[in-house]
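## Example record

The block below lists the input lines for one assembly entry, exactly as stored, with component labels intact.
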Amino acid sequence: MSIRARREREYQRRNQLILDTARRLAEAEGWHAVTTRRLAEEIEYSQPVLYSHFHGKEAIVGAVALKGFEELTGTLRAARKSADDPTAALRAVIETYLDFAGANPALYSAMFELSTPLAFASAETPGPLIETFGELIAAVVAVAPAGDAELAAEVIWGALHGMVVLERSGRLRPALMRERVDLLLARFAPEG
Amino acid sequence: MSIRARREREYQRRNQLILDTARRLAEAEGWHAVTTRRLAEEIEYSQPVLYSHFHGKEAIVGAVALKGFEELTGTLRAARKSADDPTAALRAVIETYLDFAGANPALYSAMFELSTPLAFASAETPGPLIETFGELIAAVVAVAPAGDAELAAEVIWGALHGMVVLERSGRLRPALMRERVDLLLARFAPEG
DNA sequence: GTGGATATCTAGCGACACTAGCAATCCTGT
DNA sequence: ACAGGATTGCTAGTGTCGCTAGATATCCAC
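Predicted structure tokens for the full assembly:
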């Protein structure tokens, strides 16, 4: 009885070890450095052990990404709720989003760029993904005309994501991100 | 003398054959299907021949992408110049950009998502890349306040690119792209 | 015609994600 | 206490990837 429980605890512990190691490796050396061999070596188990935890490499990336959505949702919510007025809240959410992307490039990449088993816009979309977008919508509804909130949130999200990846690949001038945010806010929350 | 010229023509012909085949394969089956073995088989030469034309697979993807920038610049320019007024021109450029991304998903991916040797925002940035962004700026200057044009172009480009990749991965509702474009235009060219 | 340059191929390297099949370990039922 | 079966993890492989060394065939200049 308790033996099974201990086994289960050890399994979960190792599960977390795999995810933590994958994320740490990815942030330190990029996802290309996260190979099954390297991962197995780092956790001090053999390669096949990984497959008793996850269906494959994509599933590992997906699990890391899911954790990222939970973290992002939390920071976005905190930023939104600690703001004084709707416009400040939208600004806080936008800046928090960009800070998150800047501070966790590999994690952000797993969430939005890499191929993972995570389903979007479907019935099986995991909760954390919906909640993340929900935070953005919540910040937008307060400044957008009624009915347009979700649409405006999609456009703003697109602009944020687009600016992140275009800047990351050297296609935008990094020093001007602040100005771009100001411009975006001026267009979508003009009264602020 | 003319023998060397014939050789050179054949080399250029084969160069084009490699690029055309890579692009066709990528659009038909995705870039993951474009392996050096498959590419060699399709052009009916051995693998090493590819390396006498390009430094590696990334260089092939980069060459395909470069052609894409030339094409995109051309279609954007045509769309912009055939519009009646500045706002219509911006709308035409935006819709053309999105149509291009939708019609050539693999090519677009090579241009903006995949890792290639193409340098951005640097002294060695190839002309076609600069020209493409130049077309977008040209469309924006006519509707944006003086001094803000380039910044606004970056934000709009970010929104376009973000919406393309987010929609492509199922993160946005495809049917509403038209509405998102309308909203974007309403915010950046309100007088239209 | 022959020697040297050029063009192309066969064969193979190391690394990749992933897996079959075996060995050791552990828990259960008697 | 201990045999039998399930579980757990390993070794050793498969097939594929990008890429390349070295051999071979072809071609042109003298």
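Residues 58-188 of chain B form a domain with the Tetracycline Repressor; domain 2 fold (CATH 1.10.357.10). Residues 2-29 of chain B form the longest helix (28 residues).
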